[in-house]
Amino acid sequence: MVDRLLADLAAARQAEAETWTARCTVLQELLEHHIEEEEGDFFKTARKLFDRAALEKMGKDFAGEKSKMEVSARTAAAAE
Predict the structure, then answer these.
(1) Domain segments of the chain as ranges
(2) CA atoms of 45 and 7, how far apart (whole Å)
(3) How many other C-beta atoms lie within 10 A of the C-beta of residue 36?
(4) What's CA 56's distance to the chain center, in Å?
(5) What letter would DSSP give residue 51?
(6) How far does Cα 73 stand from its chain's mean position?
(7) Distance (Å, whole) CA 77 – CA 71
(8) Residue 23 belongs to what H/E stretch?
(9) What is the pLDDT of residues 38-48, one digit of tens each?
């Protein structure tokens, strides 16, 4: 769902400002709901299932992947 909304937003024209704003609102609500779920049940469960070393490794792996995605996004934006 998020991927589709992002694609729709990228393809939207300025003339579709009202639609674009509505799609952004839906995207924001989806992301906020997802974050709330992760911060609640998901992270609590992970703390029970994994030891500290495993959690720290996952955190570092996530940060590395996030950095790669940010670089990729900046490169794509600069190419436009």
Answers:
(1) 1-49, 51-80
(2) 32
(3) 11
(4) 20
(5) -
(6) 12
(7) 10
(8) helix 17-37
(9) 888 888 899 99
CA–CA separation, 16 and 9 (whole Å): 10
pLDDT, tens digit, 9 for 90 and up, residues 23-73? 888 889 998 998 888 888 888 899 999 999 999 999 999 999 999 998 888
Residue type, 22: A
Structural contact between residues 30 and 4, judged by C-beta atoms closer than 8 angstroms: no
C-alpha to C-alpha distance for 49 and 51, rounded to whole angstroms: 7
- Token pair of 60, please? 């570092």
Burial of 20 (C-beta count, 10 Å sphere; 0-12/13-18/19+)? middle
CB contact set of 38 (below 8 Å; sequence gap of 6+): none
- Rg value, the chain, Cα: 17
